[in-house]
Amino acid sequence: MARIPADDRAAKKSPRDTAAIKAGKVPKRAVKAASEDSTRAATAATAAPARRPGRPTGAARGTEQRSRLLDAALTLFARQGIVDTTLGEIAREAGFTPAMMHYYFKTREQLLDVLVEERFGPLRAELGMPFQENPDDPVAAITQLTQRLVLVASEHPWFPSLWVREVISDGGLLRQRIHERFGNAHQKASLAAIARWQKEGRLNAGLEPALVFVSLMGLTLLPLATLKLWRNDPLRRNIGGEEIARHAVALLLHGIGPRKAG
Length: 262
Prior knowledge:
This protein is mainly α. It has helices at residues 6-22, 28-45, 59-80, 87-94, 98-104, 108-133, 138-155, 158-166, 173-182, 185-199, 209-225, 241-254.
């Protein structure tokens, strides 16, 4: 008996399949194929829209990009001041487009609030630890605070210049924001500790408590902010953070007179 070619068999089945479709009896394989096509079509239709320019591509990467923008802002603010720095300049300093900057920070005011909360807040807490950890030892408290100021400056090169320019200078834009955010309870506690140490005979009674921190910052942050100016100065170019901290502690604790033995 002659064999029917495969193409002929498919052709013979075609009329029956057509009748089945007309009768509403669609073969299972056809239903499965149609279902798969529908699923692919639905997936394509519900796929995420194209990413807008400047928008981060992922959570982890977005966090990194945001941090880079904050670092760039602090660097520029320390270098040229807050008023003279635009959001576009910050984006370029970080290597991003203005659209990326705008995605995270719509205004400079919003950026400043974030910097106070996320960057200055932790530093402020860190600098307050020496007085909390040494409630009965003013020498240890002041020495450790001086050392931490220098350490913070070495870890965050923008800190000394920005603090001098925008916190302790007249018209500094960060001073009022920091005060509004954190208040002065921390400062009051430190001044109270200095006054108590004076009454207990642990600290020079002639010191003005309100000027102790001003003096300390003047002895540390100001020279740290001007270190770059000393690079070509043969008398000061070898001075670094360690020397500044040692000098500040010696001057605060012992004055300019010779240190007494014992």
